[in-house]
Amino acid sequence: MTALRQYLQVWRIPGAPMLLIAGIVGRLGIGMTPLALLMVVEQVTDRYSLAAVAGGVYALAGAALSPIAGRIADRVGPSPVLLVTAVAHPVALIGLLLASRAGADALVLIFSASAVAGATYPPLTAAIRGAWNDLTDPASGRYGLRNTALAAETSLFEIVFVVGPTLVAVFVLVADAAAALLGAAVVTLVGTVTVALGKVMRGWRPHPQDAHAKGLGPLRVGGFPALLFCVAGLGIAFGAAGVAVPAYATAHDASNAESLAGILLAMWGTGSAIGGFWFGTRPQARNAARQFAQLLGLLAVTFVIFAVMPGPLALGVALIVGGATIAPALTLENTMVGRISPASMLNESYTWVVTVAVAASAAGGAGAGILVDLVGVPWAFVFAGVAVAAAAVVAALPTGSIARAEARAEVRLERALATEPS
C-alpha cells in the first residue's frame, strides 16, 4: 500500500495526469511510425532494402535535429516547439504518403519526406522528462517524489513499444499501411498539442540569458559526456537484442519465428515494467553513480545468461527476470541527467540522450546482425553484454567524471533542500 500511495502522490501533482496520459498517447508514434513507414515504402517499391533506407533516413534525421529543437525549447520554452513540430510532423507524413503514390520513380521525394518527418518529430520525451524535474525541484517540496515520478514515466514509456506496433497491425488488418501512418500522425498531433497546451508546459519560466547554452552546450558539462557513453552502451545492447531475440526465435521455431520473437520481447518489456514499478517505491540512493554502475553490471550479466539459454521457455523466464533491471537503470539515467545538467540546458540534454540512444541502437542492431551471420546468435547476446559492461565500468570509476559530477550535484541538492519550504 505504501508503494501505491507514492504513485498516488505523483498522480496528484498538478499537471501530472496530463504528462502521464497525454504524454504516452503523443509518443505512440515512436512505436508506430517507423514500422508503418517501412511497410508503406516496401509496398510501393516492392523492395525491403529501399524501405530500410527510408526508415534509416527518418531515424537519423530525427537524431541529428533533436538537440537543436531541445536548445530552442530551453530558450523559448517547450510549448512553442511542441506546437510547431506537432503540426509539421503530420504534414511531412502526409507528404510522404503523397510521394509514395508515384512508387519507385519518386524515391528522392520519398527519402526527402522521410527526412523531414524524422527531423520534425516533436521532442516530447525530452520536454516531459524536463517537466518532471521541474515539478519535483527541491524548491517545490516534492523532491522526494522525483524517483517515483521518473520511474512511472520510464515504465509507462514501455507501453509505446507494445501498443504502437499492435495499433499498426490493427490498421493494416482493417485498412492498410497508409492508414497506419495516418493514425500515427493523428495520435502524435493530438497528444503533443494536448501536452503543449497543458498547465505544466505553459507554466515554464525563462532562464537568464547568460545561462543559455552556447557552443557545445551540455556536452561541455562535467560528467555529461561520460553519461552519454553509458547511454550509448545501453543503446547498443538494446539494438543488438532487437536482432538477437528474433534470430534466436528463428533458430528454435522457424515456422512461428515472428510471433515467438514478439512474445519474447514482450516478456522482456514486462520484466522491465515490473522492475521499474518496484524501483519507483525505493528511496533514492546516496550514491547514484554507484547504483547506476551496479544496475548496468547486472544487466550485462543477464545478456550473457541469455546467450546460454537452451530453449524459448528458458529464455522467456530469463528475459522477465533480467528485464527487471532495465527500467531501474533508465530511471537512474534520467535522474542523473537532471542532476548533472544545468536547468537552463535540460531539454537539450535529454534530446542528446535520445540522439545517442537512437544512433547506438542502430549500430548495435547492425553489429548483432553481422555476428548472427558469422558466428551465431549467442555471440550477439555477448556483444550486447560487453557494451553494457563497458558502460558499467565508466559509471563505476570512483574518481571518474560521472562520480565527480554526482558529488557536485549532491552538494547543490543538500543546499537546496536546506532551504526547502516546510
Automatic annotation (TrEMBL):
Pfam families: MFS_1. The chain crosses the membrane at residues 20-41, 47-69, 81-100, 106-128, 149-174, 180-200, 221-248, 260-280, 292-309, 315-332, 352-372, 378-398. The keyword Transcription does not apply. InterPro entries: MFS (IPR011701), MFS_trans_sf (IPR036259). The keyword Cytoplasm does not apply. Keywords: Membrane, Transmembrane, Transmembrane helix. This is MFS transporter. It comes from Plantactinospora sonchi. The lineage of its organism: Bacteria, Bacillati, Actinomycetota, Actinomycetes, Micromonosporales.
